[in-house]
Amino acid sequence: MEQRLQKLIAAAGIASRRHAEELIAAGRVTVNGEVVKELGSKADPDKDHIKVNGKLINPQLQSREKVHVLLNKPKGYLSSVSDPEGRPLVTELLPPSLGKLHPVGRLDFNTEGLLLLTNDGDFTNFVTAARNRVEKVYEVKVKGVPTEGGIQRLRRGVTLEDGTRTAPAKIKKLNETQTNAWYEVSLHQGRNQQVRRMFELIGHSVLKLRRVRIGFLTDEKMKPGSWRFLSPGEVARLMKKR
């Protein structure tokens, strides 16, 4: 049966669908020896020879078992499958026996907390799509104590320095001292370094940031660097339409 190429590439565990679209547009995907650059192009993995960067992905599609992992990411790891600068990767925290997995969304290099990794492209797309409202909850320590007016701005949504608009956010103060404050921030979207950029916009730099919940998933027993499999029930519950 014919399927969209980006879906097949994601199913093979090569990349997320978004990255797969970039590979297609860059001319790095061929079907039966012909370069395919048009997004939305389809192929039948039972009949067609599909290659990414010159490597046949049909065997991976035939034998791929879907893997879903929850990792407690420490600081100092990149949420990526490669890095030209040679920085540590979150995938290095997992045993090679799990096969090739990719992060679901991202956590900044200096941000810690819960991160999903998988070889399941459909799972990745569902969890990262803002329309599916999978909530991500963060605990953030900021320099100084923001005014209530500043926090109200962030709750309503703000325009970041690049012109993008953030969606409304739930923000609750957890603690404060004379020099800093802790907040719980709940988001349904995941723009690059969004929490840091939001607080910097109101004049307060982020000193510490960790993700403590993804949807209903929270696991305080997991030490930094540790991981566990998601159960089939957890996967189904995360992908349930809201």
Structural features:
3 domains; Structural Genomics Hypothetical 15.5 Kd Protein In mrcA-pckA Intergenic Region, Chain A; 8-stranded mixed sheet; 22% helix; alpha+beta; 14 strands; Alpha-Beta Plaits; 242 residues
Task: Tell me about this structure.
The protein is an alpha+beta fold and 242 residues long. The protein has 3 domains: 61 residues, Structural Genomics Hypothetical 15.5 Kd Protein In mrcA-pckA Intergenic Region, Chain A (Roll); 86 residues, Alpha-Beta Plaits (2-Layer Sandwich); 80 residues, Alpha-Beta Plaits, CATH 3.30.70. It contains 7 helices and 14 strands. The strands form 3 sheets. Strands 7, 8, 9, 10, 11, 12, 13 and 14 form an 8-stranded mixed β-sheet that branches. It has a 4-stranded antiparallel β-sheet with strand order 3-2-5-6. A two-stranded antiparallel sheet has the order 1-4. Strand 8 and strand 9 form a beta hairpin. Helix 1 crosses helix 2. It starts with a strand and ends with a helix.
